[in-house]
Amino acid sequence: MTEFTPITSLAGGALIGLAAVLLMALHGRIAGISGIVGGILPPVATDWGWRAAFLAGAIAAPALIIALTGHDIAFASTTPTFWLIVSGLIVGVGVTLGSGCTSGHGVCGIARLSVRSIAATLTFMATTGITVYVVRHIVGGL
User: pLDDT of 45-60, one tens digit each?
Assistant: First the structure.
């Protein structure tokens, strides 16, 4: 069971929203992680600099929080590594088919009232719910 953390959750959501707004305002780009990562993988995009900086910040921020506060960011998964890899590959296929991920469609697209992004996010969420139900109640958990 996870802890109920409304203050830190609100702060995290606000920072994600602020980062998305700043990226759009300063660079005219959508903060979709799959597109950002895709631009630093071969063939490398010509605007790889801001992409690398964005990803470096996403990695450095938790390390900075730990260093400044001494508070550890707990993460544990009881899912076997094999299933994590399979899940990651399935998500990669979904990102490709959906022309983006939940960060691009869910955070940025819905904020822009994009019908395509709203439909994509609803599809992501429905698929997630169905997958969790099937794995937990039909397959019997993993």
Answer: 899 999 999 999 989 9
